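Schema walkthrough. Field components (list of strings):
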Amino acid sequence: MKNLDYTLILAAIAIIALGLVTIASATQATSVSGEANFVFIWKQLLGIALGTSAFVFFLFWRYEELAKYVKVLYGANLAVLLAVLLVGHSAGGAQRWVQIGPFLFQPSEFAKLVVIIGLAFFLSQREGRLDRFRDLLPALAYVGVPALLILAQPDLGTAVVFIAVTVGMLYIAGARPLWLGTLALGGLGSMVVWIWAHLNHGIWIPLKDYQIGRLTIFLDPWSDWQGAGYHMIQSQIAIGSGGLWGRGLFSGSQNQLHFLPEQHTDFIFSVLAEELGFIGVVILLSLFFILIYRGVRIAAQAKDQFGTLLATGIVSMLTFHVLTNVGMATGIMPVTGLPLPLFSYGPSSMVATLTALGLLGNVWLRRQMIVF
Amino acid sequence: MDKKAALKRINVFLGVIVFIFLVLIARVSYLQLMETEHYRTLARENTLRLITIPAPRGEIFDRHGVKLVGNRPLYTVSLINLGQTREELEPVVERLAGILDRTPEELWEAIENQSPRRYEPIRLVKDVSLEIVSRIEEEQIDDCLRGVVIELEPMREYPYGNSLAHVLGYIREIQPDQLKRHKADGYRMGDVFGQAGLENAMEKILRGTKGARQVEVDAYGRPVRSLGVKNPVPGNDLVLTIDLKVQQAAEAALTWAVEQAQKEGHDDCQAASAVVLDVRTGEVLALASYPAYDPGIFAGDLSAEQAQALMTAPGRPFYNRAIQSTYPPGSTFKMVTAVAALETGKINHQFTVFDPGYFYHERRYTCWNPAGHGTVNVIKGLQVSCNTFFWEVGLRTGAETIAWFAREFGLGRKTGIELAGEAAGVVPTPEYKRRMVQAELDRRFGPQFEAVEEKYRVKIAAAASGERREQLRREKEREIARIQARYDRYAWDLVWRDYDTLNMAIGQGINSYSPLQLANYVAAIANGGYIYQPYLVQRVTAPDGRIISEFGPQLRQRVSVSAAHLDLIREGMYRATQPGGTAYGSFFDFPLPTAGKTGTAEVLNKNDHALYVGFAPYEEPEIAVSVVVEHGGKGSKLAAPVARKIMDAYFGFVSRGASAAIRNG
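Field assembly_structure (string):
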């Protein structure tokens, strides 16, 4: 047992605990007069319980065995994503959830993991053969199919996570940085050009107007301060007014008086920043950095290429989530609606993230051939 | 790829991650450490609302304390724009429509017609009942009417409806031009502003000072807690000189007169007005104009088109005829002629004229009674309203002198009453007549001259030979001369002629005075020659009853007339109400001695205006009355009875008209 990465586990526990407190503050403001006050906390706790089980399971189960199930997982994943499109539950204009018993389950959270596992296996099989651009194509196709299904929900944020994860893993797997750079910048660049062309010349685009608005509004939120820019502005006001020490837990006017929208999910970071100030933000980001740093360390010390790539994919995913969520809240990234892992309210995300951490720990546990 | 290369890549990877975290920390530092104050201010602005509290407008009372204008609470149901989508609003609107007894479409229309800023209320229905208010408040407890708020504002109430409408006036949302003029006084869009009558004239006194409440609100605009209140200062109240009882009697009598005239076939009789003054002070006891309007109609939702329709309605109910209209005074003017002649020594009390039923000066003028009044002195002249007597006297006195005395009595000049829009009237002078006739001549002959010029210009231009042209020129000259001849015949009238003096002496022709001026003139006869400024407001009081200011009699001038001569005039007017007098029919059973003068003003191509001026009691005069019934025919038949009814109300006698109405009813 001494081979467990306790630093990583403690960091995760600290993030979860801080998250629960912040959710409590955010949902106290959301709920009407006392009633339903703890529903979110209970559901989150349930997510933590399920997630912890998953964490323990994936911690001790030999990750190498995952390779056997890669095809099954991949197929099941595609089937569920298709099911979401057909019978899914919609919220905010996107179909992202399926109902399982009393719970809304968000398959795209798990799709990310499945793709990471699959891609890690896929790449580890073709070790060292990524020099040419066409070597990358099978990998891209492998990620592309589920990514397009998620894009169709439409969940632009998660689809972009796929790109980040793929680029990160391909880089570690040995793809030439030039190709990756071209791929990433080219993809991003063509998207920007496409949106620009749509806005200025009415070129067709597979996105709805509100999505485009969310993507572009961060450049100048005050241009539509009552509409698309409202979230962004209120979030920045919340963060900025927090100052060094914060307004005090349960005392942020932006949160408590409900000026901040989506305050327990997408904009939970803003609640923390408003109520606990810069100090709270530094603590949270430090915890995330510790978590991610340990992940990188695990990737470096993994016993095989599969383990390294698995860890790399998970780290890429976590980093990208932190970047887009905090970036969105602070107004330097478009509004994508990605949760802050372990911190935002969202049982699906919690279970998926803890599963991912379980796999990380597993890779660490098996860095030597013999353990127990 | 070997292990070493992989480790190198992992280090680069870590570097990217560190860079990302540094960017995030830098951004948060900027927001939280450098821009704290900026965002704190924005957060504060988010939560603070300054809600203005309208000041209750001052109320208006009659001289006995009867409330003529008050305030009542007006509840408005509004929806606060929380930025909801139509789907989110759908259930709220459906439910609200049920409570308000409207269709959802009507509410949607109201919502879509206004697009205020987020968190600002959209007014849906104004003036809902207290019952609806409590139903909405019940539903709000269940939170199913999100964003619905009830706003309370004081509304103007006119308990007596049409009564005294022209004096009280009405209020409306301040109009753009008024806003421009009064911006410095702190008016804002949506404030109310007095539009007519005393509401307008006393706007500054009535309006009070707005208050404000600072509240902390949540994102839905719901007040969370109150941070401070600056109470509004209510406007001050007015106590009028008006006696509602007399006023209502006057209004009823005018309505009666118009209906009566129409019944007798005077279809053009549509309007009338009356003024009652206290002769001792100039206090206005009643000031009535028929037809009137209900000032309360402006309190509800009134569109610009509806308002416009009211303003231009036939009969012009918004026109205050008692001060804005002027009429030829007819025989009610004869006291001026008499005073002028007596004061200048042209006649004395013994002077008589023999009236054979006509008067001859350059041509024959027939008196209203062709049978003749026999030997007439000044007293009898007034009693029987003998035209022949006043023609003779008028010629002897001269137009200039009569005009001078007319002005002495305040005629042809604004009286200075508080209300806006008062007409000055006209005391005829040769200069005035020349301008008027000239304008008429230009209107009539100008186009004729031009038409001839034009006709020949074309013809001459088209003419074949010089000879023909010359012929046309001569033709044109002839035609012009023909028109000129007719023009000259009328132009004779440019100069003041004796017949103008004759007309003036009996109050016909160009003379034109408002009912208020006539009342004030008779008041001066009654009170010994004092012209007071008529006034409506006797006191301004604070809401707690404290007196802010008081207004009393204001003497404008003393008429230069001797007491002895005034006595003669008064006696003549007294005789008019006695057997043989023109107003005897209306006053034969009046319990008090009274004095008056009927008047019938000739109107071209229409029925005559009926007039009456008088005062009572004869010995110790208290009130002066003037009545004009437009196109009502003879003054003795319609105007005198109106005055009688008004006097009955003032002295507390049972009015014949009223008792007759009760019997008939």
